[in-house]
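Quick one, T. Sequence first:
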Amino acid sequence: MPDYAVVGKGLPKLDASGKAIGQSRYVADMSFPNMLHAKILRSPYPHARILNVDTSRARSLKGVKAVITGKDILPVKYGIVPFAADQHALCIGKVRHPGDSVAAVAAIDEDIAEEALNLIKVDYEILPAVFDPEESMKPGAPIIHEGVENNTSVRLIKNFGDVDQGFKDSDVIREDRYRTQPNNHAPIEPHGCISIWHPENKVTIWCSTQIPFFLRRNLAKVVGLEERDVRVVKTIVGGGFGQKIDMFASDVCATLLSRMTCRPVKVVINREEVFLSTRQRHPMIITVKTGAKKDGTFMAQHFTLIADGGGYNSTAPLVITLSAYFLMIPYILRNLRYEGAHVYTNKPVGGAMRGHGIPQARFAVESHLDQLARDLKMDPVEMRLKNALYVGFKHPAQYRINTCGFKDALEAAAKGINWKEKKGTGVGMAGSAFPCGVKNMSHIGAGGIVEINIDGGVNILSGASDIGQGTETVLAQIAAEELGTRYENVRVTAADTGITPLDAGTFGSGVTFRAGNAMRAAAADARRQLQEVVADKLEANPDDLVFRDDRVYVKGSPDKGMGFTDAIKYYRYLDKPMPIVGRGFYMPDAAEPTTLLKEDGNFSVAYTFMAQAAEVAVDKETGQVELNGIATAHDCGFMLNPLNVEGQLEGSVAGGLGMAFYEDQPHVDGEYLNPNFLDYKLPTSFEMPKKIVSLPIETFEPLGPFGAKESGEGNQVATAPAIANAVFDAVGVQIKELPLTPERVLKALEEKKGGAG
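Structure tokens:
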């Protein structure tokens, strides 16, 4: 790997100290003069027609300044994917899940707003509801959205190769059925915003969001403004994980209430609202059928998936598409038939959550592969190595694989857990892959601006959203490296649609790839302007100048040069325009996921590969599972900041651990029983494995900024199946439903005693 001065170093995050001492300001900490507080009235029913909303008593309460219902909004539906838009900010006609938004109140303080909600009288006609996606698909099931056949909003059938012939050529065929549960993202910071409607019919909204430019587009659409009249300022985000991708009723209601009152309006929802009214990981029912040769070669696979979407679509087309296409990676699979369906139920809404449909699919596939390995009497690691994808493979789904460290990751994870010595005592393996950003509708590129000031300070502007993963830190490192200046000299302004360039937002692990490439191009553009002038001074060819360690010098002659600040002074004294401004833009050369509903294509510029091995001990008397260790190996390209990468890998293990063992949302009639941090079982530091071995696999991705790829999100995908396979290895029977509770372990052991497989 090249020797860089700034990138590749484990530098602390730019915002670390502010967060550590409590100085960082979240939406809940912000205030404006004359500001009002808003609360949202939500449906207690899973499915009901709204007959009448009487707000008269609420309006007459002292301190209440405005009340709105579905009658006060434009009848414009919104959603992440335009053609799947199916939701109003406040319900018009009927509610479709407990927690659906019905009305909103703005008052001089939160207590009065809350009291006003209790004074609103809503007359409902209770409608039949359905909570199981398989039941929802049957003829005669309650209709959740009119005109949607069998409550199935998205259906995708994909065929690669000749699946029937592949099964005919197989020596062993196996089929298994799996279920995954709903998970909540559980960000420490609930969703919030402050909106100000200006007299000139323009809006500024400060919001805890992952996608400022998407939010600008959707908000403008539903309040009847042009995008140019809406400014979204991303505040510090206290956790997102995909849940803060969508626009919510709080964003729209704050804006409309501000318009009505001519005052700033603030909404911060509570924890129960986060669970009931935002988004969750889609529960899925998955069947996997695989055919293989005696030597373990995969010949064909048939995969069916039903995603429980709850009351609305959110990211429905994307989750169904990504689940399909990531079955074609990280293994060689020439023949695949995929049948996927996104189904409405009267439960809270499914949406993007870390991995976005891939964790559920890979849990099923990776668990199923261990069953197949047992049938073939093969070691699960050896079977995975035999079928591992490699650079140069002509992919049937038209993927372009530039770099692939999957085999290295499998071998490293196996070694890290001491696989050969411990096989049969409770060890499991799982593999996966992930994109380095995907395209998404109109906001698919990223821009960067670099300003070199007269004092040698560097300002960089990016539309990218840092939600805790260290984006701003990495962008500062990239700019500093390209300019040859110190990291400490760089100041970042980000994610403000009024002043920063376009960016797609934080999703699909593409921020470093998109924004990083754009920022490097912008820094190179600014450096070029400086080096052309300095080259005359040093009597050298511009291309022979080196920018490094806060100096500019001639290649091969370090003494022939000047300091970075001196170079800027020389540039300025020639009456050149200041600041020096460089611009960059990056557009990924890939197909959009939504187009893959109809055609095949390469939907990511690059792909990361990862493997995890887990070691468990199972108490067969109590069903308790103890996670003794995780070895996680991730092909992440060149690590721009190893400290960040390590944190991402370990954090992903924590998230996957929750999916595997603890997190679930049981319901009665669509209403969750545990919408709080007391009853929702999140893993804490006490539940983390005794040992985590992080094993970054560095490959050099030619299309990534300085050779970098994604790290972190994809890593979480392999955690739950690795743990499940370790339990399978320990007790000899597979548990096919998450989470892996003691009750399910004991039930599986009882079935084993009774002769069930």
